[in-house]
Amino acid sequence: STHLPRTSACRIILATWWLLVIVVTTTYSANFVAFLVSNQNKYIVKSLEELANHETVTLAINEESPILDTFKVSQNELYERIRKVYLQNPHRFRNFTSETWDSSILIDVADGKTVLIDEISTLRRWRNKSSCNLALLPEQLGNVALAFGLRKRSSFLQPINEE
């Protein structure tokens, strides 16, 4: 036998209580589910400035990438600091090529020990693999200009222009 309030005042209080319980429960549940489901990117460094000032992280750069040459020859003050901190210190710099690639680099990146600088297409490919925990910075380091030489009225012209 259920005992329900008989007066209107008690019914209003009970309805308000249950409405409050439902609102609080759904809000908490929604926030908890959003926290569990969301892909939260945690950046070790967010810029080259932070990279130059970081004291423990290792830098890995693909030797085949023009970025390494830029760091080596640039007179930019920030690039000179990165050159001193990383490129001239074998304990804080790892270089690789496509032939000498070591998967431990990605493991160190996922563990927060290494920052990997490479071409955006390569980094996206590794990030899209299900076993890779890689966060790409929202800001790109530089731009590379590419050009295609095609014959007139080529069937590839429109798809390339749309891309």
Which secondary structure elements does this structure contain, and how are they paired or packed?
Layout: H1 8-37, H2 48-53, E1 58-62, H3 66-73, H4 77-87, E2 93-96, H5 104-110, E3 114-117, H6 120-128, H7 157-162
Parallel strand pairs: 1-2, 1-3
Can you describe this structure in just a few lines?
This protein has 163 residues and is mainly alpha-helical.
Can you walk me through this structure?
The chain has helices at 8-37, 48-53, 66-73, 77-87, 104-110, 120-128, 157-162, and strands spanning 58-62, 93-96, 114-117. The chain is mostly helical and 163 residues long. The protein has two domains: 1-39; 48-129, D-Maltodextrin-Binding Protein, domain 2. The radius of gyration is 27 Å and the shape is elongated. The termini are far apart. The mean pLDDT is 83. Belongs to the glutamate-gated ion channel (TC 1.A.10.1) family. Residues 4-117 form the Ionotropic glutamate receptor C-terminal domain.
**Total domains, how many?**
2
Fraction of residues in β-strands: 5-15%
Q: What top-tier CATH class of the largest domain fits best?
A: Alpha Beta
End-to-end separation: 70 Å
Q: Helix tally?
A: 7
Overall mean pLDDT score? 83
Low-confidence stretches: none
The count of DSSP E runs of length 2 or more, i.e. the number of strands, is 3
In CATH, what is the homologous superfamily of the largest domain? Periplasmic binding protein-like II
CATH architecture of the largest domain: 3-Layer(aba) Sandwich
Trace the largest sheet across and list its strands. 2-1-3
Q: What is the H/E string?
A: HHEHHEHEHH
User: How would a textbook summarize the main sheet?
Assistant: 3 strands, parallel
Structural class by SSE content:
mainly alpha
Our Rg estimate from Cα atoms comes to: 27 Å
Helical fraction equals 40-55%
The CATH topology of the largest domain turns out to be D-Maltodextrin-Binding Protein, domain 2
Overall outline? elongated
